[in-house]
Design a protein that fits this description.
seven-stranded mixed β-sheet, Rossmann fold, alpha+beta, 2 domains, globular
Amino acid sequence: MRRSALILAIALAGLGASAASAKTPALKLERVVLMMRHGVRPPTKAPAMPVSVTPERWPDWAVPPGWLTAHGTVAVTALGTADRAAVVKAGLLPAGGCPAAGSVRIIADSDQRTIATADAWASGFAPGCALPSTHKPQDVDDPMFSPLGNGATLDPVAANAAVRAAVGPGGAEALDARYAPLLRRLDAILCGDKPACGVTRTPTGLTDATATSRPKLRGALDLASTAAQVLLLEYADGKPMADVGFGRATAADVTALSEFHALEFRLLARPLPVARANLSLITPTIAAALTDTKAARVTVFSAHDTQIANLGGLLGVHWHVPGYAEDDPAPGGAIVIERLRDSAGKAFVRVRYRAQPLAALRAGGGAPFEQVLSVSGCGKLCPADRFMAILRG
């Protein structure tokens, strides 16, 4: 009896496995689009914060404000290597040699850090091949990445309503109260035992969007987002802990405080009216990259955390990389959009987030963390036509 029952159980298990396999179509990768944030950089200005926030001297960096660092270059190069291995494994590109002309397209914003990130990624993806990137001359404004006032407009009524809905009941005052313990911890790092400094002396407020400008935070949470990102970049660049937060921040602090950076984007960049407007000159290129039969097999945007957050909001996707707050765009991190086709010829889209965990980034790069994301209203494997409708709005 026991033997018969065991045989029956094994048979049923086999049938179940066969049924599960039958329900999972074999998918062939056809196109990939990466929306990638640039790699590790210093603060974009010196000093990094006003002296009213901290009287401390910020640590020195080996490159000018806002430029990609040598450490960041190494980490992004490693990401390029990992991305090449992934597309080779999927059969999209051959393992050896340089990719065929036109099979890889790289589009960068015009900042030094985005141009250098594109170059570093290309050197890891196709060593010795000198893959070019398309970009404006350095520091010449590119409407694709800064569309508002450069050919695109924002509906301020819809944008401001969406931002206030994201802020929630009680407005900015309620946010300050909710984040008070974390704000106090940040002040302790910034000020030590010095009086009359820190981010909490100015209550948080909101500056409304206009037809040509995005909404903004001001006051405590705005300053906290900037300070938290500076501390994270110091840590990610591998600086001694004596230089991270003036020696008063721990790795756990860096992770916890990244919530402020994620919060800024949750309130100001992910709401749909803002996301759509700020991506309005990029989404047509993404759509063409996924649907045009003559498009490159791999398309990469070397962009900023703002575009990552915009695209995350547009698609309604969420990620959580080790060492960061949920939805915080990691340096070098990317939203990866894959077009796939099953054996019956039906097209699907899958969205992933890939980035190096913060500890790995600090150590110099390493293998990326990957997470398949669920597109709002469409799931983890989205019919291509439905995905395109979401993308185009």
